[in-house]
Amino acid sequence: MEMESYVVVHNIAKRHNVGTLARSATAFGVSELIVVGRRDFNAFGSHGSTSHLAFRHFHSLLEARSFLKEKGCDICGVEITDDAVAVDQHPFKRSTAFLVGNEGTGLSAKECEICDFFVYIPQYGSGTASLNVTVAASIVLHHFAVWAGFSERIRDGNKFVVAEKPAKQVKRNFCAETVDAIIEERKSRKQNASEFFDGDGNAQSSSNLLEGLFSDDQ
Amino acid sequence: MEMESYVVVHNIAKRHNVGTLARSATAFGVSELIVVGRRDFNAFGSHGSTSHLAFRHFHSLLEARSFLKEKGCDICGVEITDDAVAVDQHPFKRSTAFLVGNEGTGLSAKECEICDFFVYIPQYGSGTASLNVTVAASIVLHHFAVWAGFSERIRDGNKFVVAEKPAKQVKRNFCAETVDAIIEERKSRKQNASEFFDGDGNAQSSSNLLEGLFSDDQ
């Protein structure tokens, strides 16, 4: 059976981290980046990698869990819990989706509930206790790729060979939007319109949000 | 013999990365962060971790190499060279200093010259070819800590236990500044004054630069 990895982010706090996370996810052969909850982030920091990475959006953690369970995935929380296993022990069994916490706060109780098991990144010395969320996710994704035996990308000189990007006119990425989901979102937008105004008080249309999700800003 | 790890950064381009790098270095038990060349960065992104991490500054790569060789260190470049070994193979022998490249450009020929060997981080899939420099450094430092068998920090609930910070009046960190080095720097500052003006054209004093190096901005 072919192994796959997924990354799940839920209401991520710092916008710019999503782009850097997308870059790492691409580098480590992640199949899809799954965004749960708010999705009005841009892809700053991704250096164009989003063109190679599939995104998927769900409104709730339970919807995301159902989707991943249908795929036969374990859901692994990256968090320092009592039963968490050090990631370098490779406690993996099958395709795995990694749920990473918001910067600084770690995973909430609700987030922990959808996880099948937990890994943590051992720390040493006496200093900081919180790694940058993209750093933590990257270390975990790297270990999973090593464990799963993903095919290594071919190197050419001092660069990895990058596949040609799809032509601009071709639909890039995809988003699992159903008509129901769009209706649901419009409803919640009406209920809480203030969320959809930017700092200058300008309304952002739904298409702007989607555009932002897939933007290639560097 | 007790193993130690060091991080060497040379003319690092993106200021905010130094702070995040310092956070990771602290988490992975790095002994010192060695800054070569320009040092007018601040520690943004470090979340206070710089108080636990020792910094050292050298004007040239060769000075840094001499210092590290006296310590009995290997110098390992993090770069995709023909003879680079995948980092998960743990090609380490003794205390090691890791030289990480500027974001995007990798290591220069001059930087490669001071290295004893190279490691690279395997990539998978067909997307981006450049990992964020802090992500790359963090993966390497994590592997070295696992290989060296550093003592793992004690966990308490879902946090690592962090040592108490030194009181504010105590001199934090240190910097290997000799009188000669300061005279040398003042000389080079006169020769190339433009480097020491910020974006608004304001002159920055030497003490500001040093302050910036050790700042705790979050």
Q: Any overview of this molecule?
A:
The structure is a homodimer of 218-residue chains. With 218 residues, the first copy, chain A, is an alpha/beta fold. The first copy, chain A, has a single domain (5-159), classed as Alpha/beta knot (3-Layer(aba) Sandwich). Chain A has helices spanning 15-27, 61-70, 109-113, 133-148, 179-191, 206-213, and strands at 5-10, 32-36, 54-58, 74-78, 85-86, 96-100, 117-120, 155-156, 159-160. In chain A, helix 1 (15-27) packs parallel to helix 4. At the A-B interface, helix 1, helix 4 and strand 9 of A face helix 1, helix 4 and strand 9 of B. Chains A, B: Residues 194-218 are annotated as: Disordered. Chains A, B: Residues 6-142 form the tRNA/rRNA methyltransferase SpoU type domain. Chains A, B: This is tRNA/rRNA methyltransferase SpoU type domain-containing protein.
Detail the topology: elements first, then pairings:
2 copies of one chain form a homodimer.
Chain A: E1 5-10, H1 15-27, E2 32-36, E3 54-58, H2 61-70, E4 74-78, E5 85-86, E6 96-100, H3 109-113, E7 117-120, H4 133-148, E8 155-156, E9 159-160, H5 179-191, H6 206-213
Parallel strand pairs in A: 1-2, 1-6, 2-3, 4-6, 4-7, 5-7
Antiparallel strand pairs in A: 8-9
Helix pairs in contact in A: 1-4
